[in-house]
Specification:
The complex is a heterodimer of chains A (671) and B (339). Chain A is an alpha+beta fold and 671 residues long. Helices cover 62% and strands 7% of the residues of chain A. Chain A has helices at 2-7, 21-52, 81-88, 149-152, 166-173, 175-208, 214-222, 231-240, 258-282, 286-294, 299-328, 331-336, 343-353, 357-383, 402-431, 455-486, 491-506, 509-520, 534-544, 546-558, 563-570, 575-586, 588-604, 620-629, 633-665; strands at residues 54-57, 63-68, 74-79, 97-98, 104-105, 120-125, 132-134, 137-139, 145-148, 155-157, 160-163, 432-434, 438-441. Chain A has a four-stranded antiparallel sheet with strand order 3-2-6-9. In chain A, strands 5-10-7-8 form a four-stranded antiparallel sheet, with no helix packed on it. A three-stranded antiparallel sheet of chain A has the order 4-1-11. In chain A, a hairpin with a 2-residue loop joins strand 7 (132-134) and strand 8. In chain A, helix 6 runs parallel beside helix 9, helix 15 (402-431) crosses helix 25 and helix 20 (546-558) runs antiparallel to helix 23. Chain A is globular. The termini of chain A are far apart. Chain B is an alpha/beta fold and 339 residues long. In chain B, strands 1, 2, 3, 4, 5, 6, 7, 8, 9, 10 and 11 form an eleven-stranded mixed sheet that branches. The radius of gyration of chain B is 21 Å and the shape is globular. Classes of the chains: A alpha+beta (671), B alpha/beta (339). Chains A and B meet through helix 6 and helix 13 of A and helix 1, helix 2, strand 2, helix 3 and helix 4 of B.
Chain lengths: 671, 339
């Protein structure tokens, strides 16, 4: 029997596709960009996570004590605070956990301690890692230190580093901190509902009515995207503060708190919701409406059974985007939040106010959870979306209806007035000499060198950052998207890459910034020299805004058939040549969109860079924050408006350039 | 490992190439001095030592302290010029300061010099707590000017009072630590409980309460005298009140960061910070400086400020800081200005 099996055919060669040089280049490129994402995102986040579990604890057995008799003679009985504590039961285990800054006196272990007594004390560390203070002098090493009673009272033990979950336990047992979770969620939910409703009707008016001035409204609706999120906060102070222009409208309620945060959040998230919903409403099938009319459905019923279901993915997506923006925003609640604590601000307060980096990391971990959840649900819903527009669809065209058109015009005018009004108030405030006592106009508030925040240098730094981010970011992101989209095989690697590319969207800027401190300011990290340079700001900003840019690039690339690659391969042309000669020119609209998106966001971002800027790289957006913080509100408004004009200018230049370039490169689209 | 070194080398080479190449020494100086004074300080120093360039890193006291502590294992600063003594004591207890007795230190008031054998830091000037009182807005609200800390707990002032959050502001902390020292531990917390009832909100920075008072956003801001005098000079209808019980104060001080790459230049700078010329320079904004007999009265400063300064126990403040702050947070932080 065995003989016959042995005679069977020899094993054929394993057929393995040979990697061409092109494949190698593309895989190599993908690995490089994936490594970039790992180093600039995954590793810092890991460093932060591990920081949140790093705790400080007083090790009572780390010290040895000796007490003399009344004559000052030491009789040899060596004890430790741990033994004393076990005997006296002064402190429980939870009393021993503390922050990095913790100190603890020793006299509590001596019930009959008196600083006047002639008794002498000796203390030493048991090991080299022990630390204690006499007054404010640090004592390390295992030498005995002899002290009189009066000095012994000034001895403070210092905690030792350990690992554990006591930070989280502390966090959830501190009501002041724990409350922030509730506050944050509440604010985010309210702002989301208001913004999405307002933006829906605005988008509806622009897409489904025949009112006039649609172009103007579209332009105005996009304006808030050009300013830092804390600018509406400043406008609200001038409008509704105690010296506000129209503070009577609040009927005595204070703008410093949830009201202010919600109004400001609606302002700065409006364009984001508007774009998404507008896209969803732009596509619709007129046949459905015809069917509704022929079935004699009322307009109300048609609205609920045709319009809303058609836009539901847009609405859900807009809701989650707004929710994420509000819950992770820190500039606005800082300026206008009053006593109302939210998570993003808590991180800052823990790190900057109390130098409690561990607790800052804990709050970051807590903040990441709702952000990731919202993001995950959104992706899940999006993946269920099916094409609404089939080949047989008939595009919907609104018919004029004087009455509803007039109502929509009034509604849109009100919304536009709200947006323009906020910006106008800031500009006005920036030009006033000393609100509210000296209302003459002056340019004093533009003399930034006399204020905190870095002066005009900060402004030019911001422009540099924005340019670097736009150029480098666009190259990296578009090339990365191309490699993922168009390379062959290597499925695992590509899926992993896609995942990395989606992650930044779910990571709040504050968390990213804090993670960067932990990761890059570690002296054993070879990338440490980057800390405090412009480079780290560029890297951080590119990573922070990676996802949206990546998605834009992928969408554009998906529109190009893979046959381009096959053709170029059969013509024996290297892929990189195809990339530069065909792909990039064809996708130029998307490339330009990515670069302006990165530019504008780099100008306005605060949350991530606030932990990372150095004196040489102070930024305009951070300057707005710092000037407001020091009470220089008018100069803060002035700087905020400078950011607005710069971004508006960049947008206009972008428009002109795209027109020019598109005419030359996209002529093929319209025959 | 080799790769790691290579990477380190190439990255640092890149960074260096990006930086400005020059033969001069650059000192990275961390400071919490008001932004508008920095250029003047650097100019005065460079008049004597043009070969040393100062790179300022300026931020509020809390942020600078946080930065220094965060960079403990890898200090970026060479010198700290103008940071609260309480913060410097904190750094000293971490072993982060290089003890150095600058030339001429014996001419300073001993109160302004660190108590170690070789001082770890030397003082420049004192910044003193005060109450900024907006006469116009207070008049509108029908308030009478307070004369003491205890007055401020009067229900009349409910909602008309702003003070800095000690968890983020050095000024806020010196207020709290002075109350605990003046009224005793128990009395101090009782006082703050009563005061809390009147506070509209707590701000992040120490100068903001006074600026808010100057802008009429609130009638009374607990802040410091220097800020009040500046706003008054700018035309704000302010009165600067020195409470009768005495006022807390902290000093701005100078220190060398242990492990600096340019120890000689750092010493040169610290030597300069205690000269008579430097003291006169501080005096333009601060009524109290470390060298006795230098200070001239500063315009708009309230009278009797010097006498009102309490006998501040910096060691108490530094060693109990963590405990005081966490107690404060658990009692009042619902009302703190988000930062």
């Amino acid at each position: 029997m065995t003989d016959t099996t042995n005679i069977s055919l020899p094993e054929g060669p394993v057929i393995k596709g040979k990697l061409s040089r092109d494949d190698l280049i593309m895989r190599g490129g993908m690995i490089v960009i994936a490594l970039y994402l790992i180093v600039t995102m995954v590793m810092p986040l890991y460093a932060m996570l591990s920081k949140s579990f790093s705790t400080y604890k007083f090790e009572l057995s780390q010290y040895e004590l000796q007490i003399s008799d009344e004559e000052g003679v030491f009789s040899g009985d060596v004890t430790t605070p741990a033994k004393l504590n076990a005997a006296l039961n002064v402190l429980s285990d939870s009393d021993l956990s503390t922050g990095s800054d913790g100190r603890m006196g020793l006299t509590q272990f001596f019930p009959d301690f008196s600083f006047r007594s002639p008794v002498m004390y000796r203390i030493r560390n048991v090991s080299d890692t022990g630390r204690f203070l006499v007054g404010s002098n640090l004592h390390t090493g295992t030498e005995w230190t002899e002290l009189d009673s009066n000095t012994f009272r000034r001895v403070q033990m210092r905690p030792e580093k350990s690992r554990g979950i006591s930070n989280f336990v502390n966090y959830f047992s501190t009501p002041a901190l724990f409350n922030s979770i509730k506050n944050s969620l509440w604010i985010a939910v309210v702002s989301t509902i208001v913004t999405v409703s307002l933006a829906f009707w605005f988008a509806y008016a622009l897409n489904r009515s025949c009112m006039r001035f649609k172009g103007v409204f579209r332009l105005v609706a996009m304006a808030p995207i050009l300013v830092p999120s804390l600018l509406p906060g400043i406008a609200l102070v001038y409008l509704f503060g105690n010296q506000g222009m129209i503070n009577g409208l609040l009927f005595g309620a204070s703008i410093y708190g949830p009201i202010g945060i919600v109004i400001g959040s609606v302002f700065f998230t409006f364009p984001h919701a508007f774009i998404i919903i507008s896209t969803a409403l732009a596509i619709s099938d007129a046949r459905l409406y015809e069917a509704a009319v022929s079935l004699r459905a009322s307009p109300w019923r048609t609205f609920w059974t045709v319009t809303i279901p058609g836009a539901r993915y847009g609405l859900i997506s807009a809701a989650f985007v707004v929710f994420n923006l509000v819950i992770t925003d820190f500039g606005l609640p800082k300026v206008i939040g009053g006593q109302f604590n939210v998570l993003a601000v808590d991180i800052y307060k823990q790190v900057i106010g109390q130098q409690n980096f561990e607790m800052g990391a804990v709050v970051s971990v807590v903040l990441v959870i709702p952000a990731i959840l919202a993001f995950a649900i959104d992706r899940l819903v999006q993946s269920k979306q099916v094409a609404l527009l089939s080949a047989r669809s008939v595009p919907f065209h609104p018919t004029p209806n004087p009455k509803t058109d007039r109502i929509f015009l009034i509604y849109c005018t009100l919304v536009a007035f709200f947006i323009v009004g906020m910006l106008a108030v800031c500009q006005f405030a920036a030009l006033i000499k000393f609100w509210p006592y000296d209302l003459s106009f002056s340019l004093n508030n533009y003399d930034f060198s006399r204020m905190d925040g870095g002066g005009w240098t900060a402004y030019f730094n911001s422009i540099r950052l924005a340019l670097f981010t736009a150029v480098i970011g666009t190259c990296v992101i578009f090339f990365g998207a191309y490699l993922v989209e168009k390379s062959n095989g290597f499925t695992t690697g590509r899926t992993l890459f896609q995942m990395f590319a989606m992650l930044p969207m779910a990571i709040p800027g504050m968390v990213l910034g804090l993670a960067y401190i932990f990761f890059f300011n570690n002296p054993s990290n070879p990338l440490n020299p980057l800390y405090g340079t412009m480079a780290i700001l560029v890297i951080c900003t590119v990573t922070h805004f990676y996802t949206v840019s990546h998605l834009t690039a992928v969408t554009a690339l998906k529109q190009m058939d893979r046959e381009f690659e096959s053709v170029s391969a059969s013509l024996k042309q290297p892929t990189l040549k195809l990339f530069s000669r065909v792909t990039v020119p064809v996708c130029l609209p998307a490339v330009l969109d990515i670069s302006i998106y990165l530019f504008v966001n780099a100008m306005t971002t605060v949350s991530a860079v606030v932990f990372l800027y150095s004196p040489k790289t102070a930024l305009a957006s951070v300057a707005v924050l710092n000037m407001d913080d020091a009470g220089d509100i008018a100069p803060a408004a002035a700087m905020g408006m400078m950011i607005f004009y710069t971004n508006a200018g960049a947008r206009i230049i972008h428009l002109i350039i795209s027109r020019g370039i598109l005419r030359r490169t996209q002529a093929w689209r319209s025959r | 490992m080799k790769f790691k070194h290579l990477l380190t080398a190439s990255v640092s080479a890149l960074v260096m190439a990006a930086g400005v190449a020059s033969a001069e020494t650059e000192l990275t100086v961390y400071t919490a001095v008001e932004a508008e004074d920095l250029a003047r300080y650097a100019e005065a120093f460079n008049a004597h030592h043009p070969d040393i360039t100062i790179n300022w890193v300026r931020d509020s006291t809390g942020i600078i302290t946080a930065k220094l502590l965060a960079e403990r294992d890898n200090p970026q600063a060479d010198v700290v010029w103008g940071l609260a003594a309480t913060s410097l004591l904190l750094l000293k207890s971490e072993g982060m300061l290089e003890p150095y007795a600058p030339a001429g230190v014996e001419e300073l008031d001993p109160k302004f010099v660190d108590g170690g054998d070789v001082p770890s830091w030397v003082g420049m000037d004192a910044w003193v707590a005060s109450v900024c009182y907006n006469t116009v807005e207070a008049g509108k609200a029908g308030l009478t000017p307070p004369t003491s800390w205890q007055d401020l707990t009067d229900p009349m002032y409910a909602g008309h009072l702003i003070m800095p959050n000690p968890n983020s502001s050095g000024t806020g902390f010196l207020d709290v630590s002075s109350w605990l020292q003046m009224f005793g531990e128990e009395g101090g917390w009782e006082y703050m409980d009563a005061l809390h009832e009147n506070i509209a909100r707590y701000t992040h920075s120490g100068s903001k309460p006074c600026k808010l008072a100057a802008a009429g956003e609130i009638p009374i801001g607990i802040s410091f005298a220097f800020r009040g005098a500046k706003s008054k000079a700018a035309g704000a209808p302010l009165e600067i009140i020195v409470p009768s019980e005495g006022v807390g104060w902290d000093m701005e001080a100078t220190a060398i960061v242990a492990g600096t790459d340019s120890p000689d230049e750092a010493r040169t700078l610290v030597d300069f910070t205690v000269t008579r010329e430097a003291m006169e320079m501080y005096n333009s904004g601060y009524a109290v400086v470390a060298m006795p007999g230098v200070a001239k009265p500063v315009e708009h400063f309230p009278e009797g400020l010097l006498e009102a300064m309490i006998d501040n126990d910096f060691e108490f403040a530094a060693n109990n800081r963590a405990a005081i702050l966490s107690e404060w947070q658990s009692r009042y932080d619902g009302k703190s200005d988000p930062k």
